[in-house]
Design brief:
Elements (H helix, E strand, L loop, with lengths): L28 H20 L2 H19 L8 H17 L3 E3 L19 E6 L5 E7 L4 E9 L8 H19 L4 E12 L3 H10 L6 H13 L5 E12 L1 E2 L2 E2 L2 H9 L2 H13 L1 E4 L2 H12 L4 H9 L15 E4 L4 E3 L2 E11 L9 H4 L7 E10 L5 H17 L6 H18 L5 E11 L5 H14 L2 E5 L4 H7 L16 H6 L1
Antiparallel strand pairs: 1-10, 2-3, 3-4, 4-6, 4-9, 5-6, 5-13, 7-8, 10-11, 11-12, 12-14, 12-15, 13-14
Length: 498
């Protein structure tokens, strides 16, 4: 990690730009092989049949290759966009975009919809006696545990401490990189309206019986007026582990036993990164968080119960929405309407204050959830990936008569990443999901406009996940730890080679 001078510490870089585009006219390895095969077939037709047949095939092949090579500003080709549109159209015609839960439905319970329908939750105890929830996704064989953090915020932290926290965060990720079976770290930050139950409960429980009448009236007015327009912020870190050992799949009890002795150290090291007080999330806490995400109208019920010292008991098979519909450009679920975006690139370098605009509460958005996904690359494949990024960025710049500043920045970024990886640093892919939720359809345009403004302000280029709103919503949830590559039909190696 490079050193920063005292004057530059306030703009300490957290992470750099995304991986460069394919090197040859937008074509990856597979595209170039298809182009070479098209040239050979065209020449064969020209000599074996006639020139016209060769030219016709060459024109068809050129159009097909252009549909792969020509990409929009998000790096998506016409083939990819058309495939998503056709898949959503097919899902709509077959009824796969609709979800109906409850005792009279085919599910029989209020299970989670879509990709989360077959997940299950068990509760265990770690080596220090702290209960934790373990979520199992049978389709991928993955297990997820969740830590809730209570960071103090950056408003009272000076530049030196910010740099130190970032360094400790990098060391924490390095610690996880050598954890057996770790696949992904997901940091979720959720902002929502503060209903004031917690403040009122705190005031009433700490108020002295002998307090003067004036003090009682002042505190009562504070409890009534302070929560109006304020917001609460919650943070979680979800760790996803592979459940397979060789060809054998471990069950929940065996996986929990393997994690129980490792979790206390992981939680303790996370607290030292500026995350504040950290604790494992148990089953009831996780069920409450996901129930509120799907049904925002239930939030006051949980808050009022907590303020009275009670807990609303829920089960994993009863926290799903009664009904949900995955529309093309939004997702309806119980009492909420949500739209999700994904990060396609970083507009330059992100420093300590870079993500502040997208992380802050916004008055036009009822609930906002930011999910940062850190996918840890396998140590055996990381050097090859880093070297391929360097070659791709250099080839793209060499193909232009006058490389742009962006091309030179990509080369510098790729070279620095490869150098750090060669010196023992872990290679981690960073992704970001943004989900905003409102209660009424009339409020949705203002919320969408707010996110479209906050993305570039945070130096993030965001693409709305049209056609996959339900899946993006599920992936941004804390606790479930979905790894997208494990649920994709197209293998990851093939996608990266296109």
């Amino acid at each position: 990690m490079t050193a920063a001078s005292p004057a530059a510490k306030a703009s300490f870089t957290h992470f750099r730009s995304a991986r460069p585009a394919p090197p040859l006219a937008g074509l990856g390895v597979v595209g170039m092989l298809l182009g070479f095969a098209a040239v050979v077939i065209s020449i064969g037709l020209a000599y074996g049949v006639n020139v016209i047949a060769g030219l016709v095939f060459a024109m068809i092949a050129a159009v097909a290759l252009m549909s792969i090579a020509v990409r929009d500003r998000h790096g998506s080709s016409w083939v990819e966009r058309t495939g998503i549109r056709l898949a959503h159209l097919y899902a709509t015609r077959t009824g796969a975009t609709l979800h109906q839960g409850g005792p009279i439905s085919r599910l029989g319970t209020y299970r989670l919809p879509g990709i989360l329908a077959d997940t299950d939750l068990t509760e265990h105890v770690d080596a220090q006696g702290n209960p934790f929830a373990l979520v199992h996704t049978p389709r991928s064989g993955h297990y997820a545990v969740t830590i809730e953090a209570h960071p103090d915020g950056a408003s009272l932290i000076d530049a030196d401490d910010q740099v130190a926290n970032v360094d400790r965060w990098g060391r924490w990720l390095d610690l996880l990189a050598v954890e057996p079976g770790i696949l992904q770290v997901q940091v979720t930050i959720e902002t929502a309206p503060d209903d004031g139950h917690g403040l009122r409960s705190e005031i009433e429980s700490t108020m002295s019986p002998d307090a003067p009448a004036l003090a009682r009236r002042v505190l009562g007015q504070i409890a009534d007026t302070y929560p109006k327009g304020s917001a609460s912020v919650r943070s979680w870190a979800t760790l996803t582990f592979a459940g397979a050992v060789g060809k054998r799949q471990r069950d929940s009890d065996e996986m929990a036993a393997a994690l129980a002795v490792r979790l206390p150290e992981i939680v303790g090291k996370l607290a030292g990164t500026g995350a504040g007080v950290c604790s494992m999330v148990d089953g009831q806490q996780l069920c409450e968080a996901i129930r509120i995400a799907y049904d925002p109208a239930a939030a006051p019920m949980f808050a009022a119960a907590a303020a009275d010292g009670h807990q609303v008991m829920t089960r994993w098979d009863s926290i799903g929405p009664p009904a949900a519909c995955n529309q093309w450009d939004h997702y309806r679920h119980a009492s909420g309407i949500s739209v999700s975006w994904s990060m396609t690139s970083v507009l330059g370098a992100v420093n300590a204050e870079g993500l502040a605009p997208i992380l802050r509460p916004h008055p036009a958005i009822t609930r906002k959830r930011i999910a940062l996904l850190y996918e840890i690359r396998d140590a055996g494949t990381a050097p090859g990936v880093a070297a391929a990024d360097v070659r791709a960025s250099e080839a793209r710049a060499a193909g232009k008569r006058k490389p742009s500043a962006s091309d030179r920045r990509d080369i510098e970024s790729a070279l620095q990443t490869a150098d750090e990886e060669a010196h023992g640093a872990s290679l981690i892919d960073v992704a970001c999901l943004v989900t905003c939720t409102v209660r009424e359809m009339a409020d949705l345009p203002a919320a969408i406009a707010a996110v479209d403004m906050l993305g570039p302000a945070s130096r993030l280029q965001l693409r709305r996940e049209d056609g996959a709103q339900a899946a993006a919503f599920a992936q941004s949830l804390p606790g479930v730890g979905l790894v997208t590559a494990a649920h994709s039909i197209i293998p990851r190696q093939l996608r990266e080679s296109l």
